[in-house]
Amino acid sequence: MIIRLAGGLGNQIFQLGAGLLLAEKFKCKSIVIDGSGLSKYEERRNNRLIVFFDLTKSNVEIIFKQSFFGKFRLPRVLPFKFSNYPLVCDRNFQKAMQSTNKFLWLDGYFQTCLLQKDFYKEIELLKSLFRHKGLPKKQGCVIHIRGGDFIKLGRNDVASSEFYANSIRKMQKDYGVKDFYVVTDDRDYAKSMLKNIKPLFIGGSIQEDFHLIGRFQFRILSSSTFALWSSALGCNSEKGVVIAPDELIPGVKRPWLLPNEIQF
C-alpha cells in the first residue's frame, strides 16, 4: 500500500487511519507513506505522525519514503469504482473496502467517505499506536478555536461566534460548567469570537494543544480535524460531553459523530 500524505496533523491522521483500516481488512504487510507533497504547500507542512504515534507498535510495517508513483496523483484523476481497482481516493473508498486487492495506492483526505463504524474502527487502531502522555484529567470546559489559515480559506464560517455562544450556554445551563479554557492558534481571533466570556488561554505548542483538548471532560470544538482527532483519541468517559460543528467545511457535513458528541 502507498499513501500520499497531505495537509496538517488532522488530515494526516485521517490518511493514516484509512491506510490502517484497509491494511487490517486485507492483511496488508507493509505501508509506504510518501510525504514528499508536504513541501509544496504555501505554508510548509511537516510529517507529524511520528511525533504523535509509535508506528513500531503497528502490526503492519510502516515505511516513510518517496514513491515514484506519488507525483502522478492518479487515484484522484481516475477515481473509478471497478471491483478490485487499486487506485483509491475519497470517491471510491467504500468500493475499495469491498475489494480483495493486494496492492492499493491511496491519495485523498478520507473524511467524508467514512461510515460511523469505519471511524470508530480507525479510532481503535490509532489509539493502539497513540503516544498517550498519561496526563491527568482537567476540570471545566475546553474551547478550541481555529484561526490563521482557516480564516483565509473561509473554513471558519461553520464555527461562528453564534455557535460558540450557544455551545457555552448549553454547557452552563445543562451541565453546570463554570470554567472555560481556550486552546487556539490565533488569540486575537479567539477573543473576537468569545464576546460573552473572558477567555483563559492555555497551551501553545502543537503537541501541548493536541494533548490538552483530550484531557477535558467537556469540550467545544472547531471544525478543525486537529481538534476532532484530539477529542477522538483523548479520554472519553461516559460522563464526557463534546459539542462540534456538524460540517467540516461550509456545505460539507460530517457523516460520523465523535465519541460523546451531542447535537442540539
Poorly predicted runs are none
Strand-residue fraction? Answer: 15-25%
Q: Whole-number radius of gyration? A: 19 Å
Give, in spatial order, the strands making up the sheet with the most strands: 3-2-1-5-4
Number of helices: 10
Q: How far is the first residue's CA from the last residue's CA?
A: 40 Å
Task: Please outline the major beta sheet.
Answer: 5 strands, parallel
Order of helices and strands: EHEHEHEHEHEHHEHEHEHEEE
Structural class: alpha/beta
Q: Give the % helix.
A: 25-40%
Report the strand count.
12
* Average pLDDT figure: 92
Total discrete domains: 2
The global form is globular
Provide a descriptive summary of the structure in words.
Helix 1 crosses helix 5 (116-127). The radius of gyration is 19 Å and the shape is globular. The strands form three sheets. Strands 3-2-1-5-4 form a five-stranded parallel beta sheet. A five-stranded parallel beta sheet has the order 8-7-6-9-10, sandwiched between helices. The protein folds into two domains: 2-127, no CATH class; 138-253, Rossmann fold, CATH 3.40.50.11350. The termini are far apart. Strand 2, helix 2 and strand 3 form a beta-alpha-beta unit. It has ten helices and twelve strands. It is α/β, with parallel strands linked by helices.
Features:
264 residues, alpha/beta, Rossmann fold, 2 domains, 5-stranded parallel beta sheet, 10 helices, 12 strands, 17% strand, globular
